[in-house]
Amino acid sequence: MMRRIVIDQLRPGMYVVDLHKPWLEHGLWLTRFPVRDWAQIRRLIDAGFAEISIDTRRGRDIDLPVTRLPAAPPPLPLRQVVRPPATVSLGEERRRAGRLLGDACRQLDELARAARAGERVDALALEAVVGKLIESVARNPDALVPLARIKRPETYDAGHAVATAALTVALARQQQVAAPELEKMALGALLKDIGLAAIDEGLVSKQGQLSQAEYAIVQSHVEEGLAVLEATVSLPETTVAVILEHHERYNGGGYPYCMAGDDITLAGRIAAVVDAYDAMTSDRPYRAALAPTAALRQLYEQGGVQFDPALVAGLVHALGVYPVGTLVLLESGHLAVVEQGTPGDPLRPVVNVIYHAGRRQYVEPVRADLSRKIGNHYGRILRAESFERWGLSPLRWQPA
Prior knowledge:
This protein has 14 helices and nine strands. It has helices spanning about 25, 40-45, 90-115, 125-140, 140-150, 155-175, 180-190, 200-205, 210-220, 220-230, 235-245, 265-280, 290-300, 310-320, and strands at about 1-5, 15-20, 35, 50-55, 325-330, 335-340, 350-355, 360-370, 380-385. The longest helix is centred in the N-terminal third of the chain and has 28 residues, at about 90-115.
């Protein structure tokens, strides 16, 4: 039974199913969860929640005996892993990341060419690329991931592979995956779409809905890719899981095996989330790219349906509600590019103000910390925007 209650009635043992606030007003990644202790309740009160709904079939009801709320404990964040500080400046790492992206895309293009020609595909030649990807994200996670999101249509397949590998590293690190497993996951992300080389390009990029027969051909790229790769070398089990499971869905509605829930490996569930996110934020022949925040919102809405909700949450924590490189509209009417997140305040990042939307003209760039209560003349973020809509170059205005 669903019951709507005021926040003061919330007690440990209850099961929350609705916070009755839009996601972007609170920034919390989970809206359905068991209430474990008083500290968790105190955090919800401090965050300004007034009413919530509980499911009495999954947890405690309000008519049970209650205990007086104890004194507030020290505030604790909702479950998240604090990422280590960057060890290299964003500008320096971005220059390194640009070179790494070019090298990785060239190697992947060569592997795809070999696959199309029926030649030997040396998957393990990418191990050096994997190592460099991991090192880049460790040095400064805000460099490679946003840069990899910007792709040219003619190199989409290779760019998508590198971008999903970078996202895999970021999310796996956030989930505290051990280094050896992380390397295998990243290798799988680079290789997972190699089977598309065997499918007609016109079908892969077709505008409009695919027929059932066409869709079956596209789906075959999963097992076709593994067959091509394992004809040369035996791949690690985790790498194989990424290749085979990145199109499986949490509710069992994916392919090729219709796996569901925890029957999908952690590697497969991570791959599904990052593959969908990068595809959604990339321009395709059949649709325009979504802004990163809009894509995260859609993933969030599908948490527990198509995607593992804990991993969607992890991706939000790893990237921020407004990922670095996102164009946003401020209350002042200015457009700004997100430069870095603010720990503990994901809705108020540090931005670079570059343009006035009302006057439709550039302004002298100004770095502004939106979390500052004094000295912030720009107000809060109203929404994410598209660079293309305003005729701005996303590559030019990436943080440096």
